[in-house]
Amino acid sequence: MEISTTPSTTTVDDARLAEILENPGFGNHFTDHMLTIEWTPDAGWHGGRIEPYGPLSLDPATAVLHYAQETFEGMKAYRHEDGSIWSFRPEENAARMVRSSHRLALPVLPVDDFVQAVDALVAVDQRWVPDAAGEKSLYLRPFMFASEAFLGVRPAQHVTFMVIASPAGAYFKGGVKPVSLWLTEEYTRAGRGGMGAAKTGGNYASSLVAQQEASLHGCDQVVFLDGQEGKYVEELGGMNMYFVHADGHIVTPETGTILEGITRASIIELAGKMGHQVEERKFSIDEWREGVASGEITEIFACGTAAVITPVGELKWDGGSVPTPDGGGDLWRRIRQQLVDVQFGRAEDTFGWMHRIV
User: Which Pfam family is one of this chain's hits (predicted)?
Assistant: First the structure.
């Protein structure tokens, strides 16, 4: 794909950039440029361009504003000690966007074009990739939306794909600590035949009221159960879950109505290499309660692109709670360290996960 570049004439100066990269936070600052590619039925994907980062001009009738036809991805670029820049399994993010696009009736951006587009923006804005100290990285947000100005209810005939980037610090300031969870018994995230497995903004919008409920009860995250029977654990508002048992095997909720996380899949492979059998199956809330009470479940952890892996602490609901498992396991920590070491180039990439950009 041809991608033109129009350099920004108002780039952030080196001194200010150094200040930003010292303490970037998450999603607070954005790089000097953005990438855009457009699609129409006649021309296909075309108009690939990198240009100065700035606001979009949208018609009030732009379809995405009314019918939420949109998908996105979340991934990172990592600077290794030798100064090279790498991404982690970008083809898997591209493949997931293909699946999300099918579900949202959006055109499919080929995997190779997705990877090329992300690489192109990172190459132009490579000075924004922080060094590895404190697990800092450049967070990448590819997204696609219905950009046609039309109020009819049908798939859009004009679609825009974009990539923006934002430097990110460690998800947990002061080190990783267990997250407390609230079990919502009123809200569900997805149902059979729904959009649960697609990475689309509507899934996150539907989780926000339950997240508010969790916050009101002093919890960090919300746990969703299945929408059909209301008894099987699905995922958190934005993270996949794992339950470690006394014999070392791990259970993680099966996919279909949950997001197939890239970190999730990587942990399954890593755990298997470390000798831990991983089951992907239905896992009930009763099994969680009883497993912790009996000591059968020795640790619980969750994962996502931003946090990587975090241990899970107390689970609360209206009228009860399950304490943090007291098995004293640190499997989550060992898996996390191996994964992060591969991402930042401190360990051999035996899986072939890393993709060099610069």
Answer: Aminotran_4
